[in-house]
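FAQ: What does a multi-protein file look like?

Like this. Sequence, then tokens, then the next protein.
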Amino acid sequence: MTGGSAEMSGVLAVDKPAGPTSHDVVAMARRALRTRRIGHTGTLDPFATGLLLLCIGSATRIAAHLTGSDKRYRATIRLGAATDTDDHTGSVLEERDANGITRADVENALEAQRGTIMQMPPQYSAKKKDGQRAYSVARSGGVAELEAVGITIRELRLVSWNAPFAEIDVLCSAGTYIRAIARDLGNVLEVGGHLTALRRTEIGAISIDDALPLDAMSDPERVTAALIAPLRALGDMATLELNDEEIGHIRHGRSIPVREGVIGSIALSAYGELFALAVADADSIRPRKVFL
């Protein structure tokens, strides 16, 4: 969204190629768009590809919600070998014959990872223990005493099985490690497993179909045309259109009466644009962030 001398603002969907880190993409965007007010909404490992959302200008204020949105991935798992990183970039710890495993075996083993489960983060992860990142401990030869985290796997579908490779499609809550799904699948089948390819295809309401290739970042006109308005970016959140009286109350930080059927985190809209983020309970709707 631009106009006159107003700063560029909105959410930019980028299709990250393999190689650069998420932070590299942010740095490239800052140079290309000549602004430092850019943040991303969840990292992708350098070998991974796919959807990365950049919040630009005032849209950085919705970054936390987008980071916490559900995400969809397409991933390839190699069974028969476990690695120290749970992906193909690590060192192989053990190899076993996986040729006797059938598609039915894989389907049955995946069932244990559907729904709300406790997942152990990989040793090579950004999880902190005693003030240190787990990957720092692992790189120095140690073992971080991590704790399992509650996550939700909403969908977990076996797309193809061509021994020893399983391709899966996953819709999961924020904080899920796809590498851990690969590791745990291999453990259930008692042959080991690790991730060989990963592509993120959705974050909340935004799809990879909305994304620009990375090399388009150098074209400000393409970037401006591709910017997603904050209200649309929050499309997975319940939205409530305000009337003039409610706008006045919310603008000054005051609560408004609750509406039937509205509860939890909601986006408040005024004249078709994001006006505020709020939380609704049984008694009222309270603004948390006001944008306009």
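And here is the next protein:
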Amino acid sequence: MFLSVLSASVIALALVAQTSLFGAGFTAFALVLLPVVLFLGLATYVRLVSINHDEHRWVRGMNRIRAGYLELAPELERYFVTSHHDDERGILATAGWKSGPTLFGYVTTPAVVGVIDAVLAGVITFLGTAALGLENRLAAVLGVVVAVVSNLGLSLYAVRASRRELESHPAISPSPEAH
């Protein structure tokens, strides 16, 4: 829904730009429309982060079930193709993430929506500060700074939320490397 609204908004902005020649009418329209789109994007981001945590919880549960099977019948281990450990390392292994530092987190759906949200925040900042009389070059620099800081803030939100989720369910069958 967010990407559909964003696409429709870009089309609307293009139509207004053609009729207003990027004048005050365009800026006013953009400064009314884009914050609404940004709100929808932020709500989407928060929900996507939450969905990822739900997925981790389900993977943790499946890993715990496999651990339970192995307590009853250790000889079944050779048939399992995913982890039976319910700590972060085991959850990520089952989900297909390689252990250790990775850039995979930057190509997840929440991360992509977060980048779009940050760019929107930067564009709104540019348009607003330019409309208030700030030189375009300085308004653009400020817009970039807001975009970068916004993206870092959203990333920090996701990391902290993930930490809280992991800490709320202590591992009962941790990976051997985690001891």
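Q: Is there any per-entry metadata?
A: Some entries carry free-text notes. For the entry above: Helices lie at 2-20, 24-72, 88-95, 109-131, 136-168.
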